Amino acid sequence: MERLDLDLSRPPPLPGTVEECHRVIEALWRALGEFQQIQARVEELEEQLALGSDNSSQPPSQDSPKKRAERKGKRPTGRKKGAQVGDPRHERALVPAEAVDEVRHYFPHGRCECGGSVAVRGFRPHQVFDLPEIRYRVVEHRVYEGRCGWCGEKHQGRLPDEVPRGQMGPGLVAWIGLMTGRYHLSLREVEALLEEQWGLRFSLGAISQSQIPLQAWLGPVYNQIGEAVRKALIAHADETRHYRGRSIYWLWALTTDQMAYFLTHYSRGKGAAGELLGDFQGILVTDRHGAYNDHPQDSHQYCWAHLIRNLERIAGRKGQAGEDGERLLRAARLTVHCGKLWQQSHYPSDRYRRRLERIKALFRRELEQAAQRHGDNKTGRSCRKLLDDFPRFWTFLDHPGVPMTNNTAERALRPYVIWRKTSFFSQSHRGDCFRPMILSLVETCKRLKTGVYQTLRTICAQGMAEGEVTFRLPLPEPQPLPVASP
């Protein structure tokens, strides 16, 4: 670019010839073009600095301190923390008498200071809860051998089928699976906790090897969960990063309110999504990730929480783009508000439905105007993409009972995200297979309100004694969707 050397202390001299005028004009146009590029770049960088969990897919843990303070959004009330005056009391309920392990009696003195005798009329229970002294239990199985007195043939006893062939019993293997899959401890932390709490010393390799038979025993229950989820009428799907060493894999989740099925895959594309969904024919709720778009459009619901975050990003831009984003954002929030009221009313009338249809028409009109107004810039492209995806945002209108958000799948993935941060990732194909299995069992038991440890112990006991696990979870049968009254 040709530079113009101007002395700002006095007016610049006028160009003397037509060629000089053309040269100055061309230089000014080039300078204007570069200025516009710099301005666009500055706006882009400012938009990136403003990104957070409220306007992008960035997790809340990566928000800046300012964003976290803004996210709380509550003004201080001036009251102290904790219970307030007038709040109802919450006290631990007393354990029934038959469940008490020991009773100790404390009587008053038999005679009062005035000289009269004291008659006992009742007592006030005071129960103290404590943990017992814990110790591991060792059973030594002695297998004897002998020889025949006539022919000298050697004879040896044999262990019963229910006796484990290794040094770990079903309770210990189940406990290790619980510590890793439910409480997200690394193997080194499990090794330390075994010694600290139980006085047991097992090597890191032995603890890792205990997951090999557990993985095989979990297979039938894992397959049961997968088959049941794929038969559900409504399911939620999502994915997050899974690391094997330095390689990036993906953990996929297909969940309902009662079940959660996980799968690890090297890809985040349509092939992996197809492997996760299998023969699923119900209504699928997801974010806007394109890998799920092979699912039929009329039974695919996009998450409105993700849409609102996308619109928050547009609304944060300057000029006309920000104004259009604000209008679209208000329409989206109004849709979610009316949708919640419609769901809370259990769909008895068409009042909220008619209101949602009007908002739907308004929302589409605003999108079309914004797409036409902004052309090929990023706001225009975003609006045109939303128009292409528009039918997938309104499936809940045709199928009452379909959630408007994908929170069910995101809550299922959250424990794994925490585990991923506190562990050393997966180091082998065996680890890639074990994690989705244990996560599927743990999350399903939590949703069914079934004890995870007792379930694991039953599975391990069957696997050690019989070699085949016949235990199955009490999974619910699919329930029909509510139907809106005419």
From TrEMBL:
Q: Which residues form the DUF6444 domain?
A: 12-92
Listed InterPro entries: DUF6444, Transposase-related, Transposase_IS66_central
- The annotated regions of Low complexity compositional bias extend over 53-63
Tell me which species this is from. Answer: Methylomarinovum caldicuralii
Cite the Transposase IS66 central domain residue spans from the record.
165-431
Q: Where is this region: Disordered?
A: 47-91
Instruction: Indicate, by first and last residue, each region the UniProt record lists as having compositional bias (Basic residues).
Output: 68-82
Entry protein name? Transposase, IS66 family
